[in-house]
């Protein structure tokens, strides 16, 4: 476990350095789209979530990254203030599945119907397609996310044509 924590700290440091050194310049936020990301309660794994948050920033989105292990009531305070277009949830371990389902149920009741993205190691290891709905998608990895970005860009281009 100590090795895992050390590896996480190293990865976190490198991701922070890449952003602070300007190696990945953010695109101009012309879309005015907003996304909010957090790990569900008691979920301590966050590196992948931080990478996804940075990917959205790099695509020009306004992003709030709330970190790991956030209770649903606290997330709802930020969600209602920020009113994101996308809410990203992360869980690595299978015993968080019931928490993910509860969070999806609560967020599906939001009046503006944001897209709910579920990711993390659990999304790649297990078939979670039964959780997908009109406003819920399962993101298995960064390649899947990049495909989603490309599709979204095409949809936006079609809206403006």
UniProtKB/TrEMBL annotation:
InterPro entries: Cobalamin-bd (IPR006158), Cobalamin-bd_sf (IPR036724). The lineage of its organism: Bacteria, Bacillati, Bacillota, Bacilli, Bacillales. It comes from Halobacillus salinarum. SUPFAM superfamilies: Cobalamin (vitamin B12)-binding domain. Pfam families: B12-binding (PF02310). This is Cobalamin B12-binding domain-containing protein. Residues 32-161 form the B12-binding domain.
